[in-house]
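Amino Acid Chain and Its Fold in Token Form
===========================================
What this section holds: a protein sequence and its matching fold, both as plain text.
Structure line: whole-number tokens from a learned vocabulary of local backbone shapes, matched to residues.
Purpose: to set a sequence beside its fold so the mapping can be learned.
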Amino acid sequence: MPVLVKETTLQAAVPRTAAELLKSYPNSPYTSLLVTSRGYISCLDQHCTRLSSGLTRLRSARNSAAKDLASDAKSNGPGERDESNSTISLRDRVVLAVQLAVSSCHLQEKDRETAVPVMVTLVVDNRPTADPSGALLAYAAAFVLLNEAESVEVACMAPPRQLPDVKHSDWAVTRQRYTDVLPATAAEGLLCSCDGELLEGFISNLFIVQHTDIGLMVQTAVDGALAGIKQREVLEACQALGIRTQRKAAVKQERHLWNEAFLTNAVRGLRPIRTITCPAQNALGWEVWEVHFPAYNEDSVSTRVQSYMQQGCQELFQLCTY
């Protein structure tokens, strides 16, 4: 059974899924993380940065949209609050909320060996009297880790997000219409530009290994896509392994040069791709095509990168000890 915590208080009403929670808090930044069975969180500070920077970005967009209001609206209404008086940092709030959510989830599941992903959503309350830091909610549910060696199919489905630099709850609602028509064989849809760039997955970053004049090159989009926490780990792993990388999206016009592809996600990890397809129901106006990749082996880029990351090179925070 899932658990929902608001700051440091367990909530009686719990959504069935994290997606339902996100839909209840529009225009709010969020991040997804995995707490291991031993109580470890990878890259906690990066998750907190994603929340705080996302909140700033969304508020900036909201204020920009409201700049043409009557000139006396600001003088007659409440002014901007000073957030510097906060007595507890966002990181501390995240730790407290996640700690309670995970421990409560484990008590319900009666299985401390089950890895538990925790969706943390920082909610921006738009009421004038609301706390300017926003209420923090932690949604926890037991999670079954997928076989990382099992390859998946992905499909080119939709144009880029309007705010690709922010992981925010509105996307959970927007992407549903594309998810509804995703081919049954596809594990995830891809967002693509009008220029033929394959930017990112619905909830993942995309890497494509391509043949070039100087050898294999690992490509992943930076512009027009959300900066992923696991994406950063992969780029660091490639640098350590001497694998060439290019921070730009692969384009469909060069798909004959593609050699390998994989997805990354902070909760699901690295997933090899066996097929990239562009189905007839795509919202891009693209022709139908498919690219199939050979079976992965120990020499594959994804296998080497995965092996390197499993050595524990990422930043770990111990939430609790069991």
Remarks:
- Confidence is low (pLDDT under 50) at residues 69-85.
- Helices lie at 18-24, 44-65, 73-76, 90-109, 170-174, 176-179, 229-241, 301-309.
- The first strand starts at residue 3 and ends at 6.
